[in-house]
Specification:
By secondary structure, this protein is α/β, with parallel strands linked by helices. It has 10 helices and 10 strands. It binds NADP nicotinamide-adenine-dinucleotide phosphate. NADP nicotinamide-adenine-dinucleotide phosphate binds next to α1 and α4.
Length: 248
């Protein structure tokens, strides 16, 4: 699959680009400066040490990275709106994965701040009404993604209002070694998912760690989205019994 990454030159964008390219996807790593993007891609090809197919990782301008049907928005959260405002037409009809967390640093802690509309993902969805915004990847430690030599296992909470887009992102994440997507409902869940990142970052700073999320107590296929075929009702009952109301 072709995947674009807008703002792909930062730690998270690089890590995702590398893992997706290793998984066999064609990644367009975007930047405000295409030359800078190509330089980052050259570094990532070195990291991969020949494991990438020719042409699987290309550095491009953000507008080119916005062209595929699957696009990751990996700018800092406070640059997201201005970035997508210039790409509304290009992103129309596409699935846009919002990885952003609205955090501020207070000494040895990260604190969550509330962006307009309650989450970065909802803010981006409002700016891109004709795109399908999916929140995912907020808890991934960028450094672990770029370290191909270390074993890596992470659950990735995936939420969206469009069920097909959410499933498409789960399917994409399933192809990446070590990632286990977990369908987590509608985009309303993004506020809690993003805010929890502040706790995770604080824990990691305090413990000098790169921990991520791993859910206990639920049986998932090795590479699954937590919603095995034919279990729609079971998922709804689980939500009710946890006080979560009806399934989105
Ligand atoms: N770092 C992590 O471990 C991590 C983990 C999970 C989620 N996230 C989220 O992922 C996103 C990216 O994180 P990151 O640490 O990779 O971010 P970053 O390095 O601060 O930014 C990523 C790239 O965005 C571009 N950029 C910077 N400021 C911009 C602006 N005002 N407008 C448009 N583009 C701008 C820059 O690329 P160019 O200069 O090349 O255009 C930069 O290299 C953030 O929203 C973060 O909350 C990060």
């Amino acid at each position: 699959m072709d995947v674009g990454i807008i703002g792909g030159t930062g730690p998270l964008g690089r890590g995702l680009a590398l893992r997706l390219a290793v998984a066999g996807h064609r990644v367009l790593l975007g930047s405000r400066d295409a030359e800078r993007a190509e330089g980052i891609c050259a570094e990532l090809r070195d990291v991969a040490g020949g494991a990438l197919a020719a042409g699987s990782l290309q550095g491009v301008a953000n507008v080119e990275a916005a062209a595929p049907d699957m696009v990751v928005l990996a700018t800092p959260w406070d640059g997201a709106l201005a970035t997508v405002a210039e790409l509304v037409g290009t992103l129309r009809g596409s699935t846009v994965v919002s990885v952003g967390n609205a955090l501020v640093r207070h000494g040895r802690e990260a604190h969550a701040v509330v962006p307009p509309r309650g989450s970065v993902a909802a803010m981006v969805q409002a700016a891109l009404p004709e795109s399908h915004v999916v929140a995912a990847g907020q808890h991934l430690p960028a450094r672990s993604l770029t370290d191909l030599g270390q074993p890596f296992a992470a659950d990735v909470l995936v939420c969206a209002d469009d069920a097909d887009a959410r499933q498409a992102v789960c399917d994409l994440l399933c192809t990446v070694d070590g990632l286990r997507p977990v369908s987590a409902g509608s985009l309303a869940q993004a506020a809690a998912i993003e805010a929890f990142t502040a706790v995770l970052v604080t824990v990691n700073m305090g413990h000098r760690a790169h921990s991520t999320l791993r859910l206990a107590g639920m049986t998932l296929p090795a590479h699954g989205d937590g919603r095995p075929a034919g279990t729609e009702d079971a998922a709804g009952k689980a939500a009710s019994s946890a006080g979560g109301g009806s399934r989105p």
